[in-house]
From TrEMBL:
Annotated active site: E94, E125
UniProt keyword annotations, A-Z: Carbohydrate metabolism, Lyase
Protein encoded by which gene: murQ
InterPro entries linked to this entry: Etherase_MurQ, Glucokinase_regulatory_CS, MURQ/GCKR, SIS_dom, SIS_dom_sf
The protein, known as: N-acetylmuramic acid 6-phosphate etherase
Entry-linked CDD domains: SIS_Etherase
Family to which the UniProt record says this protein belongs: Belongs to the GCKR-like family. MurNAc-6-P etherase subfamily.
Boundaries of every SIS domain copy: 66-229
Additional free-text comment from the UniProt record: A lyase-type mechanism (elimination/hydration) is suggested for the cleavage of the lactyl ether bond of MurNAc 6-phosphate, with the formation of an alpha,beta-unsaturated aldehyde intermediate with (E)-stereochemistry, followed by the syn addition of water to give product.
Pathway field: Amino-sugar metabolism; N-acetylmuramate degradation
Gene3D superfamilies registered for this protein in UniProt: 1.10.8.1080, Glucose-6-phosphate isomerase like protein, domain 1
PANTHER family on file: GLUCOKINASE REGULATORY PROTEIN
Length: 311
């Protein structure tokens, strides 16, 4: 399905979507006490993880494919409109401080550009050409992955992004919250997390938005685990850009090595503050340059670098 200028046809199309369904049992929710509304909303939210769990095999397959491409120098690119686009931008923006990725390694595209993060950009989500132009501006390569995000699964911007990327040989993922969606059908990896009707009819920033956030968390986090950005469950590639993160960096080194504060300070000083390098320097008893070389030879995987140092 694509957008249509016929209001009657569009209305009929929306009425087929689970995410747009009307809940007659909630027709008088505005007359309930606040606590009861909160209980209802919380109850609705508890169903989302179960819906995500049903799609874990598809999610895992997509992650493995993304990680394989990114290991070859590809980028992870999210494309969506409205809430879906904002969630993609949010996930992308959190990767540099969390995993020390280059800002252009994980990218979020939102229909209408940066202004659409805080205001509605009229007609942007209906423009397939805008999606093609946005991707062309990134100079797609075959190693890239484009993840189209749309609760309805019918948003023209997201569908066109996936179609355009696939035509250029990039990996494609379609994340929707309705079954049999055009977005999932257009992508190599379709992920449809069906969360059912919303508490407020058609307000897909609620359960659908929560489901999308959970899946995007998995896509980026587990991909980074596969790429060696963690050591166990420690964020060893964290970028210490503020006092909190500098304290966290020292704590991560301590947890990974059991070293004293003085040893940790010396190791961080010898490795220009790089947490992963400092851990390797301590555990393998090597100097900073040697730690850097071992990690480079191991494609950034700390466990592999430790094995190489001990071998």
């Amino acid at each position: 399905m694509t957008s249509t200028s016929n209001p009657r046809q569009l209305r009929a199309e929306l009425e087929t979507l689970t995410t747009e369904a009307f809940r007659a049992d909630l027709a008088e929710i505005d007359r309930l006490p606040t606590l009861e509304i909160a209980r209802l909303m919380n109850g609705e939210d508890t169903t989302v993880p179960t819906a995500v769990a049903e799609r874990l095999p598809e999610i895992a397959a997509a992650i493995d494919a993304v990680a394989e491409r990114m290991a070859r120098g590809g980028r992870l690119i999210y494309a969506g409109a409205g809430t879906a686009g904002r969630l993609g931008v949010l996930d992308a923006s959190e990767c540099p401080p969390t995993f020390n990725t280059d800002p252009d390694q994980v990218v979020g595209l939102i229909a209408g550009g940066p202004d659409a993060m805080v205001t509605s950009v009229e007609g942007a989500e209906d423009s397939a050409q805008l999606a093609r132009d946005d991707l062309d501006g990134l100079r797609l390569i075959a190693a890239d992955t484009v993840v189209g995000i749309s609760a309805s699964g019918r948003t023209p911007y997201a569908i066109a992004a996936v179609q355009h990327a696939r035509a250029r040989g990039a990996l494609t993922v379609g994340l929707a919250c309705n079954a049999d969606s055009a977005l999932a059908a257009a992508a190599e990896h379709g992920i449809e997390v069906v969360v059912g009707p919303e508490l407020l009819t058609g307000s897909t920033r609620l359960k659908a938005g929560t489901a999308q956030k959970l899946v995007l968390n998995m896509l980026s986090t587990i991909t980074m685990i596969r790429l060696g950005k963690t050591y166990g469950n420690l964020m060893v590639d964290v970028r210490a850009s503020n006092e909190k993160l500098r304290a966290r960096s020292r704590r991560i080194v301590a947890l990974a090595t059991g070293a004293s504060d003085d040893e940790i300070e010396r190791a961080l000083a010898a490795t220009d503050g790089e947490v992963k390098n400092a851990i390797l320097a301590i555990l393998a008893d090597v100097d900073g340059p040697t730690a850097a070389r071992l990690l480079e030879d191991s494609d950034g995987h700390l466990r592999a670098a430790l094995a190489a140092a001990s071998g």
